[in-house]
Amino acid sequence: MLAWKKRLLIDITPLRESPRYRRLLSGTTLSSVGSSMTMFAVTLQVYEITRSPFAVGALGIARLVPTLTIGLLGGSLADAVDRRKLVLTTTSFLAVVSAGLAAQAFAGLSQLWLLYGLVAVQAALSAINQPARQTFLPQLLPPRLLPAGIALNRLTFQVMLIAGPALAGLVTAAAGGLRTCYLIDTVSFAGSIYGLTGLPASARSQQPTSRPGPRAVAAGIGFIGRSRVLAGAFLTDLNATVFGLPLALFPAINAERFGGRASTLGLFTAAIGVGGLVSSVFSGPVGHIRRQGLAMLISAAVWGAAFAGFAIASSLWLTLSLLAIAGAADTFTVVFRSAIVQSVTPDAYRGRVLAADYAVGAGGGELGNLESGTVGSLTSPMVGALSGGLATIAGCVVIGMVLPTFARYKSGDEAGEAQPDQAPEAAAAAPG
Fold this sequence. Notes:
This protein is mainly alpha-helical. It contains 20 helices and no strands.
């Protein structure tokens, strides 16, 4: 019985075997909760200033534009400099931005342009910081523990999604309002810096192939295109987020079926988070699955099927159950994708590939909201969610057929698949 539980529950071996990983994860988790509180506070402050849903939605544009424009260039920078110093620098600047948000709140400025500007700077710094931070994982954990380490990272992300907004709501109501949220976030960066100071100075690209710039970015994108496994992982993720993510339809579906109650709408998002949290806790089997490409395709198809079922579910309990299944499938999809990306990508390209991965994750969700909202407006919310879910399933089938190398990919096969793709590396060595 004990052995069965150990295989089912999340594998905490990385925490036991790597003190540096344990320190990095604990510091990152603390800081992530603080960042989630700031996201809650900014959204609420913009609404309190304007009373405009459009103004709140414009925060997404303020985040998306610098993420897509700065993120890829940041990946080329991460492949050319000491990554530990780069992440320490961007983390310190992120703390300064949070301090700026706290200062404007304490001063009672209520200037919309200032909030948008600080959010844009924050997004640009995060687009450099997050991919570079992910490059540390293969240097702190052996290949056999990579899936377990990624699953633990995903668990902390789910904790942040649930704990951050909940704590921010309590703090806003009882302890000085939005100003306290910003202040807590500023202080929480001490945890992130604590985790980074435990990293070895060698946590950097050992084979810088180019100077940072557009040419280096193009070389990284070219490497992704030449690797059928990476291309399959990225396309599967885009397929799931662009077609299968109907967040923009949640309010309309809630209004049609459940009277538009705000408490019910909140349960929609919470159900996805709970499903993701539960699957993270019981992610032990993930580390034993070798056919990671096929597993990612199946997880993404389950994600699409869950949202297709959500589109036609009539009862609240079935609706929430299907959303929880979608959240669970999303966790497995992310873990498999991250394990594939980390394993297949050589260190010289790691920063650029992870930056592209970050941009795909951020951009795919925004495009998914646009797609589902457009289809739902032209037809109906139910048709928008149903067609998106079915399109996701069909997309997974097509990707598996067009890219059989990805569908057959097994963990441990990365060297054989990636070798041919490194041939044009000499071209990437040209100055950018």
